[in-house]
Amino acid sequence: MIVITPMKDKDIAAVVEIEKLCFKFPKPEAIFREDEHKYLVARDDDQIVGYIGIEKVLDEEHIINMAVHPDYRGKGIGRRLIQHVLNDEEVFFLEVRTSNETAKDIYEKYGFKVISIRKAYYPDGEDAYVMRRIPGE
Ligand SMILES: CC(C)(COP(=O)(O)OP(=O)(O)OC[C@H]1O[C@@H](n2cnc3c(N)ncnc32)[C@H](O)[C@@H]1OP(=O)(O)O)[C@@H](O)C(=O)NCCC(=O)NCCS
């Protein structure tokens, strides 16, 4: 059974491993330690299988990132993570690589819309879509 809980110190090593498996430019462990309070983890029994990061930026909620271990994808864990953080009172926004159809698809299913493009947002020069979710839209 998948359970979602705040990330603790002891979870960080597993989160960093998933980060490395999922992203071309993984964030270092020090960032996760510094931002520990911003992350939630998805656990399948004792195993960390995914995580999501969220922070308040001015008056909007920013989804920093989300990832699911490659062995656990397509089972609804990404959906569970996003459902866990969303609410119908606040505005949410995020950036996603323009090539990342999978992530864009999942965010669109939860009401996010592309509002702009940030040119060369990523270190390899790829653009990002900025997506926003406004309650009631
Ligand atoms: C994006 C990600 C978190 C989705 O996690 P997941 O647990 O596999 O997602 P779910 O099983 O909950 O699927 C939810 C939706 O994602 C989309 N999706 C999942 N797998 C997909 C695939 N192989 N191809 C296309 N869309 C897919 C579908 O819209 C799916 O909706 P459905 O349930 O109606 O089919 C995961 O693919 C991942 O970790 N990717 C690498 C990291 C990343 O890109 N993170 C996002 C950065 S902004």
Automatic annotation (TrEMBL):
Q: Where in the sequence is the signal peptide annotated?
A: none
Subcellular location per UniProt equals:
Cytoplasm
Q: Which GO terms describe its molecular function?
A: protein-N-terminal-alanine acetyltransferase activity
Q: Which GO terms describe its cellular component?
A: cytoplasm
PROSITE patterns, per the entry = GNAT
> Superkingdom of this entry's organism?
Bacteria
Enzyme Commission identifier(s): 2.3.1.266
Record keywords: Acyltransferase, Cytoplasm, Transferase
Domain N-acetyltransferase as annotated: residue spans: 2-136
Q: Tell me one Pfam family matched here.
A: Acetyltransf_7
The reaction(s) catalysed by this protein are: N-terminal L-alanyl-[ribosomal protein bS18] + acetyl-CoA = N-terminal N(alpha)-acetyl-L-alanyl-[ribosomal protein bS18] + CoA + H(+)
* Cited InterPro entries: AcTrfase_RimI/Ard1, Acyl_CoA_acyltransferase, GNAT_dom, YpeA/RimI_acetyltransf
Please give the function described in this protein's UniProt entry.
Acetylates the N-terminal alanine of ribosomal protein bS18.
The similarity annotation says:
Belongs to the acetyltransferase family. RimI subfamily.
Its protein name is: [Ribosomal protein bS18]-alanine N-acetyltransferase
Q: What is the lineage of its organism?
A: Bacteria, Bacillati, Saganbacteria
